[in-house]
Amino acid sequence: MKFYQPTTLKQALKVLANEDDARCLAGGATLVAMMNANLLAPSALVSLSAVKGLAGITRRKNGSVTIGAMTRHQAVADTAALDGGQRLVREAAALIGHPAIRNMGTIGGSISHADPAADYPTALVTANATVTIENSRAKREIDAQNFFTGYLETALEPGDIVVAVSIPAGVAGAGSAYEKFARVQGDFATVSAGVVLALEKGVCRHARIAVGGCAATPIRVAAAEAKLVGSRLQDSAVAAAGVLLAAACDPIDDFRGSSEYRLMILPTILARAVSKARVRAETVS
Ligand SMILES: Cc1cc2nc3c(=O)[nH]c(=O)nc-3n(C[C@H](O)[C@H](O)[C@H](O)COP(=O)(O)OP(=O)(O)OC[C@H]3O[C@@H](n4cnc5c(N)ncnc54)[C@H](O)[C@@H]3O)c2cc1C
């Protein structure tokens, strides 16, 4: 196996274009574990750790926040740049694994691996984030919702590198929350929910919801969001949204919980996220 350590994005893209079956190496938290378990044997590894300009968090004048692909989870968890409707992204980062993993893993690595039980996918879909991707020929942007295409599958094609993730400022006065249910602290999500809400005199005027761990990709249901908009977020409205989301989910049975169990707890996890996001929206509106 060949090992490359480029210092520019251009060099990294060139290696990926010329090597069959090469893989980017970001934090290595997942990739190295998979190689150790003989689940993957790439012909070449392209380390992104020395590539200039891939790490860091930038808040722009329009309120959007761009997170470089090589930014570690802990840096996202610690940033003050993500606020209001963006806050759930740092909340999700803070709940990833344990300190060693948060200091090792990167946002680019996490979303490229696209584990349905991971925390960023749900949070980024909820926050209406955009993923910036480059290859040796072009650069493109994809909505997070369209980036995650299946179980451990994304819109990435051979030769692509995730360069950054951008989170728009979103709706003024919004509050957001990410809620995760895991068997033990530090585990992947059994079920997770992200919520962005904006209120006017106690009435919900904007709602965006995604749930994770309940299908191959994060699930959004427009009708569930519509149940909240115009309501006072009373228990019955939130429960109705939970029922619609559960109907659209197709969870697997695994060691984190049966499909039935996941569907049973989903409305409760959603209700917790709505309750937190509501309090936050009330304090800004
Ligand atoms: C013990 C443990 C607990 C964990 N707990 C959680 C958890 O609770 N929640 C959670 O969400 N995650 C969890 N994770 C996963 C962790 O968040 C990893 O950060 C993530 O899975 C991979 O990130 P990485 O930077 O280490 O990527 P790597 O392992 O280096 O790479 C992962 C994959 O992405 C590709 N890749 C990496 N960067 C790019 C890029 N910029 N462009 C294109 N492809 C790229 C690689 O080629 C590889 O296929 C856990 C992992 C471990 C080992």
Structure description:
This protein is of the alpha+beta class and 285 residues long. Helix content is 35%, strand content 24%. A 5-stranded antiparallel β-sheet has the order 4-5-10-6-7. It has a 3-stranded parallel β-sheet with strand order 1-3-2, with helices on one face. A 3-stranded antiparallel β-sheet has the order 11-12-13. Strand 12 and strand 13 (203-212) form a beta hairpin. The longest helix is centred in the last third of the chain and has 26 residues, at 259-284. The protein starts with a strand and ends with a helix. The relative contact order is 0.13. The model has no long low-confidence stretch (mean pLDDT 96). Bound molecules: flavin-adenine dinucleotide. Flavin-adenine dinucleotide binds next to strand 2, helix 2, helix 6, helix 7 and strand 10. Flavin-adenine dinucleotide binds at residues 23-31, 33, 48, 69, 96-97, 101, 104-106, 108-110, 112-113, 118-120, 156, 161-162, 187-188.
Number of strands: 13
- Can you say what the CATH homologous superfamily of the domain at 175-284 is? CO dehydrogenase flavoprotein, C-terminal domain
Which kinds of small molecule does this entry bind, naming each only once? Answer: flavin-adenine dinucleotide
Order of helices and strands: EHEHEEEHHHHHEEHEEEEEEHHH
The CATH first-level class of the domain at 175-284 comes to Alpha Beta
3D shape: globular
CATH names the topology of the domain at 175-284 as Enolase-like, domain 1
> What is the CA–CA distance across the termini?
56 Å
